[in-house]
Amino acid sequence: MPGAPAAVISADIDGDGRRDLVVVVAYNQWDEIAITESSTMDNVQGLVDVMTIVPAVIDRREARVYRALPAGGYALPLALALPLSVLSLEAGPPGAPVVALTDEGASVLRLDGSAGAPGTLRLEPWIADPPVMAGTGNFLGDLGLMKDVNGDRLPDLILPAREGLAVYLGRPEGKGLARNAASRLPVPGEAFRSADDLEHRYPLPQVQDVTGDGRPDLIFRDPVKRWRSVWVARNAGQGRFQAATEVVLGTGDPKAPNPVWMGDLEGDGRAEVVFRQSLDDPKRGGIRKEMAKVREPHGRLTFRRLSKDLAPEKAAYRTFDITGWGLEGIEAEDTEIELPGGFQDINGDGRPDLVTVTMDLGVTKLLGSLATKRLNVGLDFHVWCQEKGGAFRAIKGLDLSGTFRFDLNNLRVSQLSLFSGDYDGDGRADFVQIGRGKRVTIHRGRPDCSFPANPDMAFDLREEPRDLSLVRIRDLDGDGRSDLFIINPQRAPEEGFVPPVRLDLYLSGGGR
């Protein structure tokens, strides 16, 4: 590919029942701009056309559709040039398999053509409702605007419109998206700030049931305070929501427990709040002691239920101590690194478990990376399994370590969810061990949240990943088993230019 994928979408775009791949590629290249001017010249009758050729660097975007073949694999791509007015692409409901957020609102990516013909791609304007990002020219590949907000298992569009957050429902029977908004509500926490540059903050919601009524609600986090202050818009049915209510969860005092997660821990649909307090001695000084806290932080978690008014109860119903990073809201403030981990259902029983990460990072290694801007860090993962009574039990004897390469200019590595892949389709998360050269091992998850020391499957990559942020885990072909794809730059980037890449796919299941 001429540039790095800005988005990789799995969707049945041609309606044959097989998942195709839609890859958005953003790149730049040298081109020429011709400027023609007409002028007069002495001793020449009439006008003379003068053409000036100006070298230019052109930013280009295109959507490439790789159609799935009956025997496995993918056909050569069909390409569609994307204008700068296209801001995002995501998989949509049947009848609108790929939805594009545009400056005008939303469009649907269509594939026209007769059976057996290659076909042509086009964008069909669908919804006229300009988003707040209109005119920026930025492509945002991870907005996550397609969510099921009414519980019918069809993705709906949450459109961040200028006139308020708008909800467009996915329609059954392959009818795609509704053209009219089911609801529109003011965005809590929206603000304009002016320091050195003008900043517009527009929080996007998480969708989850926090009241226990079985209907998804909208949760907005403060962009600065994170979980310390949230707003909850209760679901009123049929794609409508009540006005958002602010819920203050923490004070921000570093000496006090601060909220790091909110969600349903007990499986009853009602949300609980998890608070974390550091157990490390704040008076310890010196770079070596500070590095020890970074490598292996110690904290205490306290769990509180929410009242009917969504206020956290004063008394904690559970407390236990943990080691490691991985809880949202801590990393960005303390280390500026977002690590994989946090609360997630490891064993498929419907109750979140906990994954934390410790780092093998020394002073010598850190100082040596300042010149190269590359850092090799050993990561080790720790699992706390939630049992039937709600208690969390540390899983002993795991070997889930690996060494990962980081680019110091981009420390957002949480996008690699090593426990999110289910490679055998049993509903339990498996662990993918990457970071030991080309070798990849898969350890199947067990009902007690443990993983075998010896892998259940092992294979070699075509080449070792250059850094952690280039690896993705996702079900690409829709068979219920996770797949792996890796972005491999083909040369070092030049100043101001995006290097070409190769996209390596490793699909689970038989010959596919």
Explained architecture:
Helices cover about 5% and strands about 45% of the residues. It is mainly beta. The strands form eleven sheets. Strands 27, 28, 29, 30 and 31 form a five-stranded antiparallel sheet that branches. A four-stranded antiparallel sheet has the order 1-2-3-4, with no helix packed on it. Strand 35 (about 470-475) and strand 36 form a beta hairpin. It is globular, with a radius of gyration of 25 Å. The chain starts with a strand and ends in a 6-residue tail after the last strand.
Notable features of this structure?
five-stranded antiparallel β-sheet; single chain; 37 strands; mainly beta; 512 residues; 3 helices; four-stranded antiparallel β-sheet
Short synopsis of the structure:
With 512 residues, the protein is mainly beta.
Q: What sort of overall outline do the alpha carbons produce when their principal axes are compared?
A: globular
What class would the helix/strand composition place it in? mainly beta
pLDDT below 50 for ≥5 consecutive residues: which ranges?
Answer: 329-336
First-to-last CA distance: 22 Å
What portion of the residues fall into strands of 2 or more residues?
35-45%
Taking the sheet with the most strands, its summary is:
5 strands, antiparallel
Provide a count of the helices: 3
Fraction of helical residues: under 10%
Count of extended strands:
37
- Give the mean pLDDT: 84
Radius of gyration: 25 Å
